[in-house]
Amino acid sequence: MFDGAMELAAAGYAWEIEDAHLLHADLNLVDLNHVLTLINDREIPSDPATALVHALLDLVGSEPSAVEYVPELGEPYLAREAHLEGIVGAHVGWLRAGRTRREAVRTAHRMVVRRGILDLVDAGCAAVDALVVQARRHATTVAPDHTYLQVAEPTSFGHYILGFAHGVLRDLYRLQAEFPHVNLSPVGSGAVAGSEVLRDRERLGYLLGFDGPTTHIRDGMWQSDPMQHAVLAATTLTLGLDRLAEDLEILASAEFGLVRLGDGLVRSSVMMPQKRNPYALTVVRGTAGILIGRSTGQLAISKAPSARSDSAIYSYGEVPRSLDLATRATRLMAAVVRTLEVDVDAMRRSASERSLQATTIATALMRSDDLDYRTSHGVVARALVAASTQGVPISLEHLAQARGDTVALTPADFAAACDPDQTVQRRHVLGGSADESVIADAGSVEVQSEEIATWSREARHHITTAEALTVQEARQVLVQCESGIREQGDHR
Q1: 299: how many CB neighbours lie within 10 A of its CB?
Q2: In a 3-state reduction of DSSP, which class is residue 192?
Q3: Residue 133: inside a domain, yes or no?
Q4: Bridge-partner residues for 260, per DSSP?
Q5: How many whole angstroms separate alpha carbon 157 and alpha carbon 143?
Q6: Helices marked H in 391-483
Q7: Which end of the chain has fewer beta carbons closer than 10 Å to its terminal beta carbon, N or C?
């Protein structure tokens, strides 16, 4: 072994080998498709064709442990080549016909990433559906809204929690928009300008479930932006759920006591029996932080001259792992929302504090006394200070004292302004807190989620069908090759 080879294996090949298990299943399909193409294009003799199809079909559906992926043999491509050479001998050399190792691995990488995107989309739709269920359930549950951790105005818990569904939907649309860029095939790229052996790039891509080939070979072989965008969308989706997780950690605390997490999503202290630590929320929050780092890392490694493997080598594992991490956190957050218990009485008590009605009172005073809102705002602010000093709720008398004059606001209108239910129901604008607005918004969100979920199912069906057909054709070709009756012409 050459001097330095062990160090290269430990620092370089070992990194890629760690990702081999992620690429294994798709590399099997990519190699199988390659041999079938060589057979149909009359580029490979019968004996090596039969031997390779046999060996590759044995690998289809196998665990990664079926191949000795070790850094001493090089990166995953060379480790696979060594494994196949032990079975078919020199025939393994035909796998290099018309393609580079990076073409094989990057094709498999795109196949892994496209599946990761669809998994995350499905998880996101489940989270949206859970949010919609809670929004409908609590469309009339009066609750205090908070800004800067201070009580702001009355709302409904349904209105509050439905707001998080919109952020998830936006990221699902981003993933859906990026999917076509990921699901393009680099097959037939050759070294940098095209392959003289693999000529029909459109057909080769479709056979592996791709929407088509990358348009420009050099760009398609070295592009990294679709993968970066997928990770960024996964990160922002998780960040949106992180904001909800951080809110719920506060609302579930004993100091607030407004919601309760499901028993399966907390863990107790081993020393303090009273503790219900919100461990699920900790996981979501931590995942968001990790994904921020991974997104930054993917952007950093892409800063290089063109036609370099840096971004690819350090994306093969990082991108699928990031998508998987986001998927698991999203599924976890869906479970948190689905099992969340809301203390309706505690929320109403908190929302009934008259200080939450300050905006409504100021608006009512503005209308009754023909005041500009800034003046009305000042009157209510001074009245609240006086009431707080006395330890009593704000009253009409406080308003009159704060203004230094009588107020035209009637007791009935003042009482209505102090009623949180009426305040919530008056906000019946589009996206407002009134129950009719919440129910309508929930219906719209539900429709969008189902449309995205349907798209995901159809995309997944297209991919799995193409992959199954590749295996099916390989078995048919093997029978024909072994019987010597392989017909002339392209059957693909």
Answers
A1: 15
A2: coil
A3: yes
A4: 341
A5: 5
A6: 396-403, 411-417, 420-426, 435-483
A7: N
Using only C-alpha atoms, the chain has a radius of gyration, in whole angstroms, of 31
- Report which of 13, 93, 114 is spatially closest to residue 49, judged by C-alpha positions: 93
Q: How far apart (Å, rounded) are the C-alpha atoms in residues 476 and 55?
A: 15
The SS3 of residue 151 is strand
The whole domain housing 363 covers 353-426
Instruction: Answer yes or no: do 265 and 342 share one domain.
Output: yes
Asked if residue 181 lies in contact with residue 227, where contact means CB atoms within 8 angstroms, the answer is no
Q: Which helix (H) or strand (E) segment is 212 a member of?
A: strand 212-213
Same domain, 10 and 80: yes
Residue 445 lies in a domain: no
d(CA 477, CA 292): 47
Residues 127 and 55 in one domain: no
Angle at 133 between CA 129 and CA 138, to 5 degrees: 145
pTM, to two decimals: 0.93
Cα(first)–Cα(last) distance of the chain, in Å?
44
Residues 172 and 262 in one domain: yes
d(C-alpha 419, C-alpha 347), whole Å: 14
* C-alpha span between 109 and 468 (Å, rounded): 18
Beta strands in 300-433 (DSSP E): 341-342
